[in-house]
Automatic annotation (TrEMBL):
Taxonomic source organism: Amycolatopsis marina
Keywords per UniProt: DNA-binding, Transcription, Transcription regulation
Keyword Transcription regulation: yes
Lineage summary: Bacteria, Bacillati, Actinomycetota, Actinomycetes, Pseudonocardiales
Name of the featured protein: DNA-binding transcriptional regulator, MarR family
PROSITE patterns, per database record: HTH_MARR_2
Length: 179
């Protein structure tokens, strides 16, 4: 039942209602009134936002039979677009994972028929990885699904808000990457 002050059909804007971060900060204020937890207003929301986005992306990829890690590998290969393939170490660096973890992902993707490994003509000891035709098609479908999930998540904010958020996050990342 709507509150007395609500007009018929009117809904509260979710942004105007306290969220999990507000509740956490209020709990800290009760527990330790002298604690300056103001950074949690931003950091807590960044962490929760990343968690929510990750769940949406996993849900978008599930019908395609891909994990987020699988998606990362096939779309890195697709983005790089090297006809001969890409070195697994370069892929691991791009995905920010160990070469061992990359090997596990590549083994799975190879079993699924999405990637193939070939000897590196420039290095007899090396291997290059490339997408199969099936992998190329699935990577394209997966990217479309992920971008649709991204758009759905960002739907509540307009273009100007996106631009401001992008600039602010870019500033934070650039400062941290420069260290």
């Amino acid at each position: 039942m709507p509150a007395e002050h609500d007009e018929p059909g009117e809904r509260e804007n979710p942004a105007d209602v306290g969220d999990a971060v507000d509740r956490m900060i209020a709990e800290w204020a009760r527990r330790d009134p002298d604690l300056d937890a103001s950074a949690l207003h931003v950091i807590g929301r960044l962490l929760l936002t990343a968690e929510h986005i990750q769940r949406k992306l996993v849900s978008a990829l599930r019908p395609l039979g891909l994990s987020y890690g699988d998606f990362d590998v096939v779309n890195t290969l697709r983005r790089l677009g090297q006809a001969d393939g890409t070195n697994p170490k370069d892929l691991a660096r791009s995905a920010l994972i160990t070469s061992g973890a990359m090997t596990t992902r590549l083994d799975r993707l190879e079993r699924l028929g999405l990637v193939e490994r070939r000897g590196d003509p420039g290095d007899r000891r090396g291997v290059l990885v490339r997408l199969t035709e099936r992998g190329e098609q699935l990577a394209e479908h997966a990217l479309t699904a992920v971008l649709a999930a991204d758009e759905e998540f960002l739907e509540p904010i307009d273009g100007a808000q996106r631009d401001t958020l992008t600039a602010t996050l870019k500033q934070l990342l650039a400062q941290d990457e420069a260290r």
